[in-house]
Amino acid sequence: MKRITITSISLCLVVFFCVEASWANLTIREFDAKRHDRFYVDVGGGAKAFIAEGYNFSGTGKASDNKWVTMISPTYFVSASHWHPDPSTGETITFYENNDPSGATHTHTIANWGYDVLPDGSGGSPNYDLWIGKLTEPVDTDKIACYSVLELPSTSDYIGRDLFVYGKPDRVGHNTIDFIDTSGGDDDKHMWFYYDTPGDPDEAMTETGDSGGASFTVCDGALTLIGIHHYGETDGGDSFIPLYIDALNGWMEADGSDERVTVVPEPATMILLSIGAMGMIIRRRHAKI
Questions:
Q1: Which has the least CB within 10 A, 112, 148, 199, 206?
Q2: Would you say 145 and 56 are in contact if contact means Cβ atoms under 8 Å apart?
Q3: What are the percentages of helix, strand and coil residues in the chain, rounded to 5?
């Protein structure tokens, strides 16, 4: 059942703009630092048992002004329109190769280039809340992840998928996709994940300050990008990235780049599509006999 209205989104954006003083970390129902903090260091609280150990978060980073970026290609990244790094001030981004805060890091500078993104490829207002930016130099993809995007045949195929929700300070929890809102037409593509009560002990709810952070699902054993946070508190709302693939590619092409979003269908989906296509061919052949 849809629980959020477009008016709610607008009000939420006002909250994100105006309540910096009340920033909170990503809420997790039964938070345990050693389980949910990516960069947890044992100082007497027990051995690390990170829920997402083994997955590659190296392509998520924070700019020097603490705003989030998530890499979608070696040079380009996404964030939230209302809360993205300022491309005009030479902000830098630090990426960590792994989940060790003392491990190898890589610092990159943000280029003076960036645009609000609409699914149809045009620029848009912050109400649509997805932004594409770029680095002055590409990352080393052997060390820093560039995330693919899961593209399934229908939005209904995403409902119920498990999520890793990444938020402030560098915290990860679980949730599931509950609803995908396309009611506003081509310019309105949002994904909602509810904070259920009672619910999973690892269940996550985004808060003010998480805007621009990422939600991932797992495909073929690896993280794939599914959403960028724009709404928090009570329920989580993301810009739903699979419906922006063409628009993101359009901005990269317009910039003169040959980089594009990597799209990954699930193997099972490809098998089903192949079977369906074969069935169509067989039916057509029978029809001609």
A1: 112
A2: yes
A3: 20, 30, 50
Q: Write out pLDDT tens, residues 195-235.
A: 987 779 999 999 988 999 999 999 999 999 999 998 766 67
Q: Where do we find the tokens 């061919």?
A: 281
Task: Give residues with Cβ within 8 angstroms of 14, minimum separation 6.
Answer: none
Ramachandran area for residue 126 (φ above 0: left; ψ -120 to 50: alpha; else beta): alpha
Token couple for 242? 């699979």
pLDDT digits (tens, 9 = 90+) for 170-199: 999 999 999 998 876 555 688 999 998 777
- Which residue in the block uniquely carries the two structure tokens 């290609």? 73
* Cα(130)–Cα(231) distance, integer angstroms: 12
Q: Residue 100: how many CB atoms within 10 A of its CB?
A: 13
Instruction: Name the amino acid, one letter, at 44.
Output: G
